[in-house]
C-alpha cells in the first residue's frame, strides 16, 4: 500500500497518490502515525472526492448529471420580488468598493441602505480575505478555505425566504460560532442519480417556528426569514444560499461555506454554482 510521507499539504499528496477512494482506510493505516492522525482529522467524504479527482474521475459521481438536470428545471424565486428581475448591486470584497465596510461590521448596514438598492449580491467563487483566519484552516494543509461556495443575497432583516423547489427538511440548526451561519436550514431534494441538498444560512429566530426536521416543503413555501445581528452569526442581514451534491462527512447541520483555492475543481463538484437555481443575470455579479 502507498504511504504518504509527512508534509504540509496532505490534500495535494492525496490527489497525486493515485489511490482509489475505497482504499482510503488502508492508506491511512499504512501511513506514519503523524500523517494518519492528520488524515483521520479530515472529512472522509472530502478526502474521497480528492482521490476521485486524482484518478481523473468526477469528484462526486452524481454531480455531472445533477448539474445537467438543474439547467433544465424551473424554480420558484427565493425572494419576492424576484432578485433576478430587481435592481441589484454586486458586493465585491477585494477593493472594488473602497468605502464599503466588511459584512461583519455593523456599519455595513447604513452603507448599503444608502445605496437605495433592494438587493446586494455576494458572488460564488470569490476569494475573500475575511476567511484567512485559523477558523477556516484544518490539520491537512496550511491553506485557508477562502473561496466562497454560495451566493449571498443582502436584504433587510426579516425579509421572507421561499423554497425554490420541493424538498424535505434534513437539518434545522443554530450554528453559534462567531462568523458561522447562525440559524441554518438544509433541505434534501431528489436528484436524477442521488439526493442533493440546499443550504440557507444566516436566518432569523423564526426558523424553528416555521419548519421542523423531516417536514416536507413545497416550492414557493415561506421557509425562513433573514436574521439580524447577532442571531445570524454576526453578519449584516443576508442569505447564504448553497447547493451540495454530497453532504460528505457532515452530519450535524452545518456545512463548509468556503473551500480551498487549490481544490477549487473538487469544491465546484461538491458545491456547484447556486445560480443554477437562482438564475440571476450576469450583471448581478459585476459592477457597471
TrEMBL record:
Sequence ranges assigned to domain M23ase beta-sheet core in this UniProt record: 147-245
Any coiled-coil regions, as ranges: none
Transmembrane regions: none
InterPro entries to which the protein is assigned, alphabetical: Cell_wall_metabolism_enzyme, Dup_hybrid_motif, M23ase_b-sheet_dom
MF term (GO), any: metalloendopeptidase activity
Superkingdom of source: Bacteria
Name under which the protein is recorded: Peptidoglycan DD-metalloendopeptidase family protein
Organism encoding this protein: Pseudotabrizicola algicola
Amino acid at each position: 500500500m502507498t504511504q504518504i510521507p509527512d508534509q504540509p499539504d496532505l490534500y495535494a499528496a492525496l490527489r497525486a497518490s493515485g489511490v482509489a477512494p475505497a482504499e482510503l482506510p488502508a492508506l491511512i493505516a499504512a501511513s506514519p502515525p503523524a500523517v494518519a492522525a492528520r488524515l483521520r482529522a479530515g472529512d472522509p467524504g472530502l478526502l474521497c472526492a480528492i482521490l476521485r479527482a486524482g484518478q481523473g474521475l468526477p469528484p462526486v459521481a452524481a454531480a455531472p448529471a445533477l448539474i445537467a438536470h438543474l439547467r433544465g428545471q424551473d424554480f420558484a424565486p427565493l425572494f419576492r420580488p424576484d432578485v433576478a428581475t430587481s435592481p441589484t448591486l454586486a458586493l465585491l470584497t477585494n477593493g472594488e468598493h473602497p468605502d464599503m465596510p466588511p459584512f461583519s461590521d455593523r456599519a455595513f448596514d447604513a452603507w448599503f441602505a444608502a445605496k437605495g438598492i433592494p438587493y446586494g449580491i455576494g458572488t460564488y467563487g470569490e476569494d475573500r480575505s475575511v476567511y484567512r483566519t485559523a477558523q477556516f484552516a484544518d490539520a491537512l494543509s496550511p491553506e485557508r478555505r477562502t473561496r466562497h461556495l454560495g451566493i449571498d443575497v443582502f436584504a433587510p432583516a426579516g425579509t421572507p425566504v421561499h423554497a425554490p423547489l420541493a424538498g424535505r427538511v434534513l437539518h434545522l440548526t443554530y450554528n453559534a460560532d462567531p462568523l458561522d451561519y447562525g440559524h441554518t436550514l438544509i433541505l434534501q431534494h431528489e436528484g436524477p442519480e442521488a439526493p442533493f441538498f440546499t443550504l440557507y444560512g444566516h436566518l432569523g429566530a423564526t426558523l424553528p417556528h416555521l419548519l421542523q426536521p423531516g417536514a416536507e416543503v413545497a416550492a414557493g413555501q415561506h421557509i425562513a426569514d433573514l436574521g439580524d445581528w447577532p442571531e445570524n452569526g454576526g453578519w449584516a442581514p443576508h442569505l447564504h444560499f448553497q447547493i451540495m451534491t454530497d453532504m460528505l462527512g457532515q452530519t450535524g447541520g452545518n456545512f463548509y461555506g468556503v473551500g480551498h483555492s487549490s481544490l477549487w475543481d473538487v469544491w465546484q463538484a461538491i458545491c456547484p454554482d447556486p445560480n443554477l437555481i437562482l438564475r440571476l443575470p450576469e450583471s448581478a455579479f459585476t459592477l457597471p
